Queue: 2 jobs
Job 1
Amino acid sequence: MSSFMKKSNSLWIFVLATASILSIILSALLGSVKVSPADIFKSPIILYIRLPRVIMAFVVGASLSIVGLTFQSLLKNPLVDPYLIGVSSGASFGAALSLTLAESFGYFWITMAPYMAFVFGLLAAFVAIIFSRKGKRISTTELILAGVSMNMIFSSATVFLLYFFRRSSQGYSVWIFGSLSGVVWKDILFPFIVFVLYLIFAYTQSARLDAFSLGEDFAKIVGVETESLKLALFLSGVFLTATLVSEVGSIGFVGLIVPHMVRMIFGPSHRHSVLYSSLMGGSFLVLVDLFSRIVAPPLEVPIGIVTSFVGVPVFLYIMKSGGKR
Amino acid sequence: MIKLVDFFAGYGSTVVLKDINFEVKEGFVGIIGPNGAGKSTLMKAIASLVDIHKGNLYVYGKEIREYRRKELSKILTLVSQDFFPIYDYTARELVEMGRIAHQNFLPNWTKEDEKQVEKAISTLGIKQLEKRRYSQISSGEKRLVMLARALAQNVKIILVDELELHLDPKHKMTIASYLKKISKMGIIVIAVFHDIDLALSYSDRIVGIKGGKILFDLSARSEDLKRNLQELYNIDFVEINGPGGKKIFPLYK
């Protein structure tokens, strides 16, 4: 916003963008199949399998982080991310439902996956928020509990759906824990566009988000039209999450860990944290995906399991260190 | 300029302010009253943060419900001691938030914004704090930072809610003198005081609120103050002639 902060901003963006590119290159080069350095630019494994997957990992990580960041500010609560308040599981159920419907009623339902994911993601978030609301305040503990309930019910519903209607227990882990395998170039376009639009929106509203993170009354006093901003950021955040989930399933905790790290290092100002969170979140998920591919080849660990192993300790740490208020 | 006419307000269906008729055209108005009298609610009502049940509130002749938030925030703002940020911004960042109402939908930080921020910081003498995080400065300094934010907003009216609460006498005096200084700059200051003596010593006009109603509205030098204070707080007060003139104090027994 002001000249006061500008210098450090561009330097860090350069550093983080370089780190992001390096992580993408590293992740595309490494994997269970070895590619000789001479074949890097012509290897189909790199061009058609790894690269789209790695870029999708970046888009998903960046998106989840920035949605987590904005939700944490809107709800004035550092313990929130799209996964923890049930959006991801709801969206995951919506996407699985449209695939199931597609088997009986045709291709049309596959194209509906992001929208079904949006509807159910929204439903989960609204139920969680309504149940945790006391007057004007949203209680942290109850929001988390309601979010966990939404997670349980929608994860169970997803498994139920796949088990009884598709007569297979295989594939459910994709929706519950997420998976980036099988991503091709054309899957990336729509999530990428939605991500870029959301990034621009959040970045231009960063001063208002700053005020919002200090409380809704404070935001009003300094001139933020709180109701419309909240609604716009919330709906678009759920939509972004839904478009990702319908491609790669539900991946937890990224939106919690990354904004927390960013705030710890750079402070809470959204002018920085919106950009830094997306760059750091992107590289983070690229590296997590790399880890999940190479830790026990040829098996792949579902990516959400890795993020949970990292995320739960961070969650407990934030809870203990004063995220309670 | 603010005018409340037959004004009722509160939270949801709970009525806190009852039949308030009150007008402020200029100066420094001190608001006092027992705990739970509705003083903070009055400040929030003028800042359009509570539900209006009946009556009208005019801000410069226009009914408050007709203002958009951004428009209203260029005219008036509220500074409250009840401010406990979860996220730890720097003092400078907090003061800069006072310029949000002056930004378009897409941010357009101008020289004017920079100037107003600098002016607010230098008026309150907090240049040395600007890079420090809010959690790392003292309670007195925090209040000055919030006051600077209000000043940076470049409004005509500043509402203040018990900004001197829990401060030592020196810092109380500092806060009250800055409020006085701000009112001398031509900004209307309406301040709820926890400390009666401070309100009487610094404001031009004293309004007593009890049970959600205005009990009295007098000049700070009125001869009737003692009697009215006794009624407001239900205890005796004494008048003492000191070096700064006549003073009124509660008589603790």
Note: Chain B has a mean pLDDT of 95.
Job 2
Amino acid sequence: MPKTAPTGSLRIQGLEVAIQGKKIIHEIDLTIPAGEIHAVMGPNGSGKSTLCYALAGDPQYQVKGRAVLDGEDILAMKIEERSRHGLFLAFQHPVSVPGVNVFNYLRTIYNTARKPQAPLSVAEFGKVAGAEVARLGVDPAFLSRYLNDGFSGGEKKRMEVLQMALLEPKYVLLDELDSGLDVDAIERVFDSLRRLQNERRFAVLAITHYARILKYLKPDRVHVLHKGKIIASGGPELAARIEKEGYEKITGEKADEGR
Amino acid sequence: MDAGRENTRKKKQPAAGPSPLGAGSPGPAIAPSILPARATMGAGAPVPAAVVPSPAPRTSARAGQAGTVGDIAASLSNYRELARNPPNFSYKVDQKGLSEKVVREISQSKGEPDWMLAKRLLSLRIFKTKPMPTWGPDLSGLNLEDIVHYVRPEGHSTRSWDEVPDYIHKTFERLGVPQAERSFLAGVSAQYDSEVLYHNIQKELENQGVIFMGMDQAVKECPEMVKPYFMTRCVPPGDNKFSSLHGAVWSGGSFVYVPKGVVVERPLQIYFIMNYPNYGQFEHTLIIADEGSQVQYIEGCTAPHYSGASLHSAVVEIFAKKNSRVRYTSVQNWSKNVYNLNTKRAIVDANATMEWVGGTLGSGTTMLYPGSVLVGEGARADHLNIALAGEGQVKDTGAKITCRAPNTHGNVISKSISRAGGIARYRGFVRVDPGCHGCSVHVRCDGLILDGKSGSDTVPRMEVEENDAKVGHEAVVGRISAEQLTYLRSRGICEEEATRLIVAGFIEPVIKELPLEYAVEINRLIEMEMEGL
């Protein structure tokens, strides 16, 4: 439980996103107060992932509108600046970077995030990383591997959570954290995530196709995205309804399922 | 192996043509997959001649003629004395062009035995008749008519700090190279003071019966060990234009002999005997690892080595006898005015393992293709190489592996980085002789191109004359992936830092095989290169 309730918000106003001239997101308004968990659900192709990557700052997207993080518009910022402002994206498919040692990499991103504080030495960071690894139940052998190289689906996602734990973001974007995982792996990843969120009280914008993952991560609000627009918002009951009835009733037409 | 038969075999004409693979390579066992994303220069240039040794004695163990430990100890102490007070090798040259007179003067000034003079003169005759190689990088800036200029020893301490280019100064500072070492590397001083360390290591080696001394001295003090191996069947003078030049004018380098069954724990570093005049320009390295022995030899250094001479042409000959294991590591960072044209080769006997680990960072034009001739059953060769091609640099590097016995295996990993207009080319040659069953050679070369001005390509050639041979060539040339950059930047690090991480990761498979201090320095050098100093 938090000692003090977090303040601030991520306010998305009139956000439009296009890739290679093709508009994917049409004027989205969405406010995520600090510490809240929001789920964005929708059928395939509705623009869920695009929303995530555009907010995180992936340079291949063209954006319009505003995304105000604790009073500052982040849309004009470079992707790394957004991270330093407390935004974190857990990738659906984390890319492997062969030859880059996980421990050295984590130390690099940790020390960069700590600036202007003095960087931690190898030994000092060893303690920090060791503690997080133990807390998240990650195999310490992780640290001596190459970044995401030859990692299983579950290992990749745990690597994302480990980075999240070290960078201490205030707003976390989860792009289909459950994808490619079996039930056991989903439980393990979400268990670490839930414990981390309980303790740090970061806000979450969780992109998901399936309502079932929301039993691992209880949302405060649920939004339904369809064809690049938010067509419904509500409490957890909305997710329950989608699980029972599918998207069709809500979208009013046949969702393009089955990719 | 039948030396006579080898000698009479006609060299295959290299395949020219649009395919960079040797077209018409016999044998079905080639599994090529070539994905050159970008090739700036014409591929298909042939690889230099295959390894065809001259008629020479068979691989009977000459090492048995090695002197006793007592002799060796005596020569070592002589050597140390010599190293402290190097003889004056300077000689006057009064004519242009490399003449017999000049070569005789060199030999005489060194006080060499007749057989070495004869070798030099033979080399000179071959040099005069061989044309300049035209299959590789442009060498038109190299004026061999004025070869005497290149051959003249630089003397001991003739350069002043003002003559050392500014970028070398800067790099020394950034790398934190100690002042004494800077002076040596910049050619301001001919002395590298490593006396204490040198002494301790020599003592260890003496106790094991290992010989590690300057090549000039070895010729005089242990000719019975040197003569059968020196430019005979490993790198004969006629191997190529520059090996013949080398044979005529070589000077310096080192000689290593490791007795049967001896494991040398500590890598032998040329640093320890570098306080010899004229190091580096035409140095000759001869390493003999007797049966069952193990040795690592490390040459060169990562700090930029300033040279006034614009041609360097070294020869390295390695004999890895039965069941031995030899690792030869070289890191080269000559200043960018240098043509670096070397010939390095190992003859690998039954169940022996030869490992080549190399980093080519400096020089303007480099041609370097370490070769492994696998002559005994079960022999194996591993080649690891990094080439960094920056502004004005052409790195034409690769590996040559020849399987002359059954069940021999080779593995090549070559990594190159090109930036700021640099060209990195992998040029390789693989051959499996007929009758050599159960052989495999795998070549993997990865080129990373950091900007639109630079280039990378691969020119592999294969001759496979045995049906069950497994020979593969994989080449991937690419740029830094946008996906990787986005991922790393999303963790808060800037694009430059992310690029550095990716590049460091790219060369990691080779870097991790280097001694730690080299690994750290190479990473730093590459970072500096990428920052443009």
Note: The longest helix of chain A spans residues 183-200.
